[in-house]
């Protein structure tokens, strides 16, 4: 379990060095622990070490982790592909933000469900910035129309944008994906399509968080560099 604590220290150091290099405040970037497939006892070590933000990809993992991590204080975001038939389940759990809003159907369904619950939910729009067909997320060309539609739904509060960059071990190859997300956000704000408060950029993972921070990430999502390699499910 010491490995987890050391790994977190190492990631925090990488984050602060990247912030320094980019001339940004260290606390302008949050670390989200991507905890898919990670056992609750290992997650507990990270929470005990002071981490407060977790991200899950599958609703099925919420239930067991809710039980096993009960009593601990942390915030959890949903960062995976949300199937339409799982929308009814997501309202059962405390989810701080759904980062993976990426279709009109999902938007409608979430709105209806949260309306019934009488509450709202924070969301981020997931954009496919790498043009890989295997990736989820909106085509950048469709983002403006999507944002205009999203405005009609009071239950869905836009916090910003999320992307999974180009899958490549070379962080420089990934950079254009992150630049694209930042530019999309900046344009949407300057054209008055979204509020300047909807400015979060969730981007950057274990291999390329420095690049993402240089490009303006406000949340980096780190899994394997903290919890070790896992069987890929992405
Ligand atoms: C798994 C995952 C991550 C973390 O990836 P690592 O390379 O393990 O750091 C980030 N974002 C999403 C959406 C993920 O599913």
What's the SSE blueprint?
Blueprint: H1 2-22, E1 30-34, H2 40-48, E2 53-56, H3 60-68, E3 75-78, H4 87-90, E4 97-101, H5 104-117, E5 121-126, H6 143-150, E6 156-162, H7 171-190, E7 200-202, H8 209-214, E8 219-222, H9 224-227
Parallel strand pairs: 1-2, 1-8, 2-3, 3-4, 4-5, 5-6, 6-7
The structure holds pyridoxal-5'-phosphate.
Q: What ligand molecules are bound, each kind once?
A: pyridoxal-5'-phosphate
The CATH class turns out to be Alpha Beta
Please bin the fraction of helical residues.
40-55%
- Rg (C-alpha, Å): 17 Å
Distance linking N and C termini = 25 Å
Mean pLDDT: 94
How would the global form be characterised? globular
Order of helices and strands: HEHEHEHEHEHEHEHEH
Given as residue ranges, the uncertain stretches (5+ residues, pLDDT < 50) are: none
Strand order of the largest sheet: 7-6-5-4-3-2-1-8
Given helix and strand content, the structural type is alpha/beta
Number of domains: 1
Q: Can you count the beta strands?
A: 8
User: Looking at this structure, what is the CATH superfamily?
Assistant: Alanine racemase
Query: In this structure, how is the largest beta sheet organized?
Result: 8 strands, parallel
CATH topology: TIM Barrel
Architecture per CATH nomenclature, i.e. the level-2 architecture: Alpha-Beta Barrel
Strand residues, percent? 15-25%
Give the count of helical stretches.
9
């Amino acid at each position: 379990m010491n490995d987890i604590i050391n790994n977190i220290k190492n990631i925090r150091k990488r984050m602060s060095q990247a912030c320094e290099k980019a001339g940004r405040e260290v606390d302008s970037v949050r670390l989200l622990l991507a905890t898919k497939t990670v056992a609750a006892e290992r997650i507990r070590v990270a929470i005990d070490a002071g981490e407060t933000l977790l991200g899950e990809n599958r609703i099925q993992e919420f239930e067991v982790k809710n039980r096993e991590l009960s009593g601990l204080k942390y915030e959890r975001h949903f960062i995976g592909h949300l199937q339409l038939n799982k929308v009814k389940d997501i309202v059962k759990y405390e989810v701080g933000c759904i980062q993976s809003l990426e279709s009109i159907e999902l938007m409608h369904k979430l709105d209806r469900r949260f309306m019934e619950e009488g509450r709202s939910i924070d969301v981020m729009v997931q954009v496919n910035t790498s043009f890989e067909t295997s990736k989820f997320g909106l085509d950048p060309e469709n983002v403006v129309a999507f944002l205009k539609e999203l405005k009609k739904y009071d239950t869905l509060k836009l916090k910003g944008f999320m992307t999974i960059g180009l899958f490549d071990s070379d962080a420089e190859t990934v950079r254009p994906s992150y630049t694209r997300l930042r530019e999309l956000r900046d344009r949407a704000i300057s054209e008055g399509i979204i509020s300047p408060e909807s400015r979060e950029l969730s981007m950057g993972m274990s291999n390329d968080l420095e690049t993402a921070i240089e490009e303006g990430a406000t949340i980096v999502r780190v899994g394997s560099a903290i919890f070790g390699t896992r069987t890929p499910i992405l």
